[in-house]
Design goal:
Oligomer: single chain
Number of helices: 2
Radius of gyration: 24 Å
CATH topology of the largest domain: Immunoglobulin-like
Number of strands: 27
Structural class: mainly beta
Strand content: over 45%
CATH architecture of the largest domain: Sandwich
Length: 345
Amino acid sequence: MIGKDWIASGILARVACVGLATLGAGCQSSLTGNEGNLTFYYPTDDELDFNKPIAVGAKLDLTVKEAGFPKKDVSLTKVDPSNTQVLKVAGMMGSAFTLEGIGEGSTSIGVTATKADGTTTHDTINMMAKKPEIIDVTHSCGGGNLAYYLTKKSIFLPYDLKLKDGRAVIGYGYHALKVAPEKGLQWDHVNKAQWAYVYMTADAPGDVTLTSALEAGKSWTVRLVEEAQIDGGKLEGVSGKTLEVLAGSSAIVLARPTVGGNPICQPDTTFTVTGKTPEFCTVTATAAKSPTNKGVVEAWSWVTVQAKKLGVCEFDIVWPKGNKGQGATAAVKVNVVQLVKPSGN
């Protein structure tokens, strides 16, 4: 359950980042250059430490601004790695440039830029490149190595690249998984997300195995099901407990369709909500389909619950394409509760 005002300002981000991040904003790691003239930035999903190695075979986009305050934009005229066998410049435009990991090692990156007042400035930073040694993949709806997803949909699988000592390895465009069958998931290699791989799922149901290309014996399963196979649903919450909403407040809950009792991750499918207890609450189908950072656990099938007074809020959730097009219904409830004042007050 998430308060409505939280959703208005953005979906929960990873605690190590900022706690809350507005959609599309994300976090940035920054470092002022060795000469103190320029500050360098790159997008990050959690750890703000700048000095993380770029994966060999991956790319990283960096933006440059004047150091100090205010941080004015600059126009880059030259980016020059001292060792192009470690990192090379894969692109440069305006105040941004892209580095690509070529081989393991470290190198100085010299940057020359024109400031807003027309003068020229220069600075350097030290960057590294490393071959990733570990990949960890997490399904977005719970633990375990197997999870259910819908066919013919765009999905994301959060991942972390690391060295054996636990240090993070960064960059986009490096795919450390083997997909079988290959047509089961089509990787979006253009997507620049550093926290998740984006795939298009196959047209047909079945299991797709993702095997680590870095470590033997490590794999995850994506079980593809069709929307017609949806046979029910439930509210996401603490196992065995009914969700609670404070009387007089608004909150959202996640309604997840199921197949054989198994929840479907990222259920991008039509659903409707019908309230049955208007004296206690009103309910509305809500959508927020913009996963942009690692904090987006789910972004589909949200239901807004406007709690009125103490009681049980009951409503039906229907997935029209479920049960072979006949519709799958889940009858659910949320307890409307009151704050208990401390004794003596």
